[in-house]
User: Fold these one by one.
Assistant:
Number 1:
Amino acid sequence: MADPFSPFKVDLPLESQRGFNTRQIHSGAVPDPATKARAVPIYSTAPTVEVLEKRVAALEGGTAAVACASGQSGVFQTVLCLAHAGDNIISSINLYGGTYSLFKCILPRLGISVKWVQDSDPESYRKQIDDHTKLVFVETVGNPRISIPDLRAIADIAHDNKLPFAVDNTFGAGGFWCPAIEHGADIVIHSATKWLGGHGTTVGGIIVDSGRFDWSESDKFPHLTKTSEGPMAFSYASAFGNVAFALALRIEVVMEVGAVMNPFAAHQILVGIETLSLRCERIASNSMRIAEFLSDHPLTGWISYPDCKTMATHPWGSTHSIMTEEDRLSAGVTEDLIRLSVGTEDVEDIIADLSRAFDAIVLIHENVQTSVDRITPQTCNIKSDVGVNEVESSVVEML
Ligand SMILES: *Cc1c(COP(=O)(O)O)cnc(C)c1O
């Protein structure tokens, strides 16, 4: 019998025969029947968003995906779909600043508590699980300390307890760097604002259902497994099989909460995704060169090396500044941490820019002896004349 839900699903047997580079250009779309055009058109209704959903699901190896307004709304709506007042979720403390605030401040107001894991031992997740736990959550590459959790070990612990494992795989670049589902993730969340869109022009989020979690095996999610009362009497788990989570998320949360993606954002992200693997290759080789340059530089205190435009941030004073000093330190956000997000520019230009920043630091320290007030990047008279001067000026401003 034909699968009635095939319109909502990715054709996994077909997609698994295609490479990542082919999927990032073709998955989820067919040529326009009227014009034969290959490029995905913008329909100001749902079809453009649907192509994006299928394309990202295909890249990650999931059965279906739900696009939403931003990465933050993706994280929030995933939690809302699974945890209610009185429940808790287990999360690594190594998080993007916005997600940390959401978990620390907003979820508790809704009666959902967050139990934090501070260290990298997967067994620490097991210790936190109790009867009210509904979800285990990590980021593939924990922001900003660049911590890398053992996804498979944490997934196994979640699954031993019949709990779904959600991974914010934003830093896994749509599965190009880290196919999180292969490592045990049941739900994969992306801020499409970052690598997927790739050009800093659009905000978006997307949530992928791996289709692998057996909801009916767990008695923790009655709203997904029990038949609801009323005219729409059905159980998501038995009615929708391996797209149950995606459909529950879409119908019960995203449509009701309203943080949906608009078709114009979906179109921009689709265009961005076509070059995802190419950008990632350049970003990886640029990052390696810069890590080598920095590790050889006498002014570098320490370096940790495991985004599209190069950018330097100071998490202590910006993205993570709402955390208390103690929380920042326990999350590895020290005052001397400068986070470099390396882009696709010519690596020589980025290194030249960093060199100017180091020169400026030396100059500032010399000036400090004479007049503290007069020290600004301008008084140092080091304005870069090539393209990527944001790095130099932002590093200098941080100091
Ligand atoms: C940026 C980011 C988010 C939030 O995404 P927005 O699209 O900006 O809302 C969530 N998680 C990670 C890891 C991020 O880097």
Note: The longest helix spans residues 347-368.
Number 2:
Amino acid sequence: MTDQTRFELPQDRIPRAWYNLNADMPVPMVPPLHPQTQEPVTPDFLGVLSPMALLGQDVSPDAEIEIPEPVRDIYKLWRPTPLFRAVRLERALDTPAHIYYKYEGVSPVGSHKPNTAVAQAFYLKDEGGKCFTTETGAGQWGSALAMACNFFDLGCEVYMVRVSYDQKPMRRHVMESFGATVFPSPSTNTNAGRSLLEQDPHHPGSLGTAISEGIEAAVMSNGEKKYSLGSFLPHVLLHQTVIGLEALEQMDMAGEYPDVVIGCAGGGSNFGGIAFPFLRENLRNGRQTRIIAAEPAACPTLTRGEVKWDFADVIGMAPIVRMHTLGHTFIPPGIHAGGLRYHGMAPQVSALVESGHIEAVAIDQVDTFDGGVQFARSEGILPAPESNHAVTAAINEALACKESGDEKVILFNLSGHGNFDMAAYGKHAAGELERYEYPAGDIAEAMTRLPDVTFAG
Ligand SMILES: *Cc1c(COP(=O)(O)O)cnc(C)c1O
């Protein structure tokens, strides 16, 4: 133990390899299926969309996958990220628990997302690619990928949900500053966009429409463009393990080991990033850390969804995967944590929740903002609305320790800062933030629309 509260690693301790959970996966996984044939997807189907190196990583059995030097060089702009002990929060809560957080908001665009954006751009460039297409909601992912493509002299075409494009122009300006082209989705670029605009010229768009347009733009480009996804896929979670690998070393510097590790979960990438290296210690070395995914009560994929075969996207162009789902046609309520509004979950995370290796909790958005403001008043950082879910889950664990008198060590990932989300904090301060009932009817309806899959493995 030490009275130090900020734990920094030198640049040469940026991990040299990502940790690949495939090597230690304690439960069998099933392959993704082709959306039409329902046969396991083949590299020639996926290769149209994605660099081959990333497809190889998705199925690699190797525990360590070397991080290319050009990627580590760019990581040096913000990695290793700091780990803090939140002593002022501990005092404010009057808890015997020790609370630590890993802070990914120090990246240039303010979240964990560049950890994978830079890697994906490297592999596209390495394979002679020219341009990525992608979707973005409020713009966290789009700005990370725009920055990464700029570093590797690649084009970047972003389909941004139209309401965000119109109402939240800040991150659009970030993307454009990095040289990306940003279209409001639905757009007139694609068949999908044009037909949606025909139905409704003022269509507000959704992540679903933007994903469909990003995929179509890549498929129709004759190999000029590939499509990039910022969460959900095994290679994305793999790239994010730099978070947990650094945190393992930093906890060691602090002379402690976490009893509880927490991350917020939308598609599962920052959660997998902090959790998988600690899960490895549970699986290989008999550690018994509890690992908790925190999700919105309005989009409770892990706590209220069912494990089923379902489309990864909203209109059924993407592969069918086995995962916790609320139904691919379910449109989650408009909570401010846009990055957590997804109907499914990374299949690895899903399988581990199903097997009991990981726990999940759901928290209402008003409570998450209460937690975020309490955290800010002690630690000085206003978290991203998504991160507030992890913050609040950690506060709840610390308050449980106060009840029981346990001196537990709690570690959570602070996935990003909230500096572009002040309108949401303004609403919270004015008492205008909505509490959402569990949208039982909408989910039940969406669950009747799952694909009818006969694949038996
Ligand atoms: C995008 C985002 C998330 C959610 O995505 P995951 O893939 O589940 O990590 C969480 N926090 C922040 C700050 C984000 O930008």
Note: The longest helix spans residues 387-404.
